[in-house]
């Protein structure tokens, strides 16, 4: 596309691309935007190096003028959109990219990859957080997704309200609080379960979390309290019928005087399993497989569509696909959230070339990158922290129906004007 | 775990870890191992740099002896397992890692992340290839998964029989054949669809693939053939009721004399949608969202379990978790595929410390890494090509029932002896 557009002179037509989702998967009530900070940084660093250019040339993928153009590529356009951590609904204009056609179309794959992956995890995470109520959730899914996606998933889950991650690189890179667990292999490595527990207590102190389901849970809990005393931090249960096992372990811990020892459970938990444990004496959850897989929806369904572009004379014109099922809505868009007594009622989307104002509504679309320079508030460790805070604030705006786990309509309607 | 095991002296106990899946998700008949080549290379490069060590020290994650041990870390153990592209079944010992406990347990997350992600895509891809019969399939899912996972997914799909990818980095990095498409935005950029088609034909020649569903499909096909003539390579359809639209377009192309112009379809295709188009005059498919999401199962479900380790006196002892639901099977394992007239009948798993032989059976477990050195046949571009060839050979061993898309039992039983 870039090659052909450079040749026929349309490559530099001013263009506006929009990221949006046609629907929320699985009858979900809202989605959570994540990945924005990673994306702004990635756009800033997006270049074609010698190795890439040599390969494109050798393979004949594009012609010489395009190779030269790619060698100088650096995005110099504008990006506006939803803050990271913000909620979105069907047709929410989550991100708007404005620049020359070639410069903006080249970013499509990068933009969609980052936002689709991270928002899928954040959306699933938010539902689990909602189901867990006041109980903390730890992200433990690094082993169930691509090694790089694992780091991003831990970041996205934290933005959506998780308390910690087992992914140390997410701690180092993004400032996400980290935690660790012992695996069954650590118990099996030792001659006895008691040896394993003692080694862990010696290394980590009595406040550690002991894994009690390698052999017999009741025996393991007895051993754990005998070795660590009532100061034992927690026990982890990773198998069995959790409501039954958890209740029995709680009673046993209390009988042994370990009334402040917590119980943490893991085992392919999703938002429904977490909700199903609400009445059980669980103190914290670890979620992995289902979380990093977006709880059945591993991609957010965002698309990147041209919604406006310049004519030959430079005047801007809204454009949209017209064929069946996938019709889009043209024009540059800005979103506002209408609120009544602090509760969201409508996602109002306004089509306008200039930034509009809407009295009494919360402005959802904000500047993210201007002339190729990212707004620093949204990137790096500070950006992640801001996203987490923003998410916590806006999720409180949801109407009561909006946090239901069951399939249904979006929490609020989108008004496209 | 490493910190505690270094402190109590168990860290260096010789240990054998095994990667296996307890079941195949969704009643699938077989799984496809992928990621092996990427993994061997990643193990070879797995180090703790100054930045990582400084962070671990500052955060107090581990103590000084562990920091020193990590600074010198380099895996020097052995890895055996299934070749990349091989089929696997429940309890197949897909990978076996042997080394000191600490040196081998440290690789758990890396090993599972790579194999779980890539095998999920390869398994879904193999089912789509099987459903597509002789028609070629292109991987187009880069926008629906994490930006790095996208490259690995293209690689995994090619190993499992896809013909090409739209991911240029997968072409550059792994030698996967690449292809491109025009998006709706390219048509919308131009003043008319005719302008867009002409620009593309000028750049790519008449053999290009024109996207015909931005406005009216019938008009677009007429325009496409008028501009490109009967040499028009292909038209792509990305929306609508595909069987109906495809039939109409085929008839129209034939009426216009473009009898050799091919029809390619894309639009959230999975193995079932592809099978449903078997009777339609489709020439090739593009699969994206569903492919990179593992067609509903984004992770392969592999776990990494300690199956054998040394006692204090150095003698090896099989170990296994004993509690409910997740009981494992101890001991070092080797797999053989029993065949009758070239068709697989049984996955025979033999527990043995030394490499056994089994007359008349195909040896599935092969050496992959010895004393920390990867076998070159399995890594890099050559490894990918070998994996694709191996997959094509072994998928032909499946019994007829084994390629059914419907849920059911594994294609062959696993005999754990």
UniProtKB/TrEMBL annotation, chains A, B:
GO MF annotation terms: glycosyltransferase activity; nicotinate phosphoribosyltransferase activity
Keywords: Glycosyltransferase, Ligase, Phosphoprotein, Pyridine nucleotide biosynthesis, Transferase
Domain named Nicotinate phosphoribosyltransferase N-terminal: residues: 1-116
PTM statement from Swiss-Prot or TrEMBL: Transiently phosphorylated on a His residue during the reaction cycle. Phosphorylation strongly increases the affinity for substrates and increases the rate of nicotinate D-ribonucleotide production. Dephosphorylation regenerates the low-affinity form of the enzyme, leading to product release.
Catalytic activity as recorded in UniProt: 5-phospho-alpha-D-ribose 1-diphosphate + nicotinate + ATP + H2O = nicotinate beta-D-ribonucleotide + ADP + phosphate + diphosphate
Keyword Ligase: yes
Its biological purpose: Catalyzes the first step in the biosynthesis of NAD from nicotinic acid, the ATP-dependent synthesis of beta-nicotinate D-ribonucleotide from nicotinate and 5-phospho-D-ribose 1-phosphate.
Name of protein: Nicotinate phosphoribosyltransferase
Source species of the chain: Amnibacterium endophyticum
